[in-house]
Design goal:
This protein has about 180 residues and is an alpha+beta fold. It has helices at about 20-25, 40-45, 45-65, 110-150, 155-175, and strands at about 10, 15-20, 65-75, 80-90, 95-105. A hairpin with a 5-residue loop joins strand 4 and strand 5 (about 95-105). The chain is rod-shaped and about 100 Å long.
């Protein structure tokens, strides 16, 4: 993904957010094209991810440490993009949180590939469930017919052995399908 070095800077006390050109590109906006406050940044975050991301940021500032987060943003054209951010709080001479620095990269391709794999798994599971159902359908009447046949021809040794083989194989197939 794109991103680099320290490319996010948040001046905590005066609520100023500064980005590198790379981060502007990740958000799909021209350098300087957003208001430059934490609230302006939050407005770019996907509504479903905004609260969780904000909680992580606030917890990091309160604890004076850092955080990592994967979240979606809403691009100007309405599409969503996945980003991953790492940030660290720096304290001033008095120990108060002064600024937060970090880096952001796109993980969009990774997240889309992950979603495609999940969909493939879902389709595979659906196919296997359908296949198992279709295989079970003929096994029950075959098994019942073999039991019936065994009663009818129980006195003939060769037929009885053939029926035993059928019953064993039906039981084995049923086990495999289940």
């Amino acid at each position: 993904g794109r991103g680099s070095k320290i490319d996010n800077l948040v001046q905590i006390a005066n609520n100023v957010v500064e980005w590198s050109d790379e981060v502007y590109a990740l958000h799909g906006v021209a350098p300087g094209a957003f208001g430059g406050t934490a609230q302006d940044f939050a407005a770019l975050v996907h509504p479903d991810d905004r609260e969780a991301l904000w909680q992580r940021i606030e917890a990091a500032v309160a604890a004076g440490d850092g955080f990592t987060a994967d979240f979606r943003i809403r691009l100007p054209d309405g599409r969503d993009r996945w980003l991953s951010t790492w940030a660290r709080v720096q304290r001033d001479a008095h120990g108060a949180p002064h600024r937060m620095i970090g880096a952001t990269i796109s993980i969009d391709d990774y997240k889309r590939a992950e979603a495609a794999l999940r969909e493939g798994d879902r389709l595979k599971d659906e196919f296997l469930a359908m296949l198992a159902h279709e295989l079970r359908n003929p096994l029950a009447p075959i098994g019942s017919s073999a039991h019936l046949l065994k009663r009818i021809v129980s006195d003939e040794r060769g037929a009885g052995q053939a029926v035993d083989i059928i019953l064993r194989q039906v039981a084995h197939m049923t086990e495999l399908v289940d």
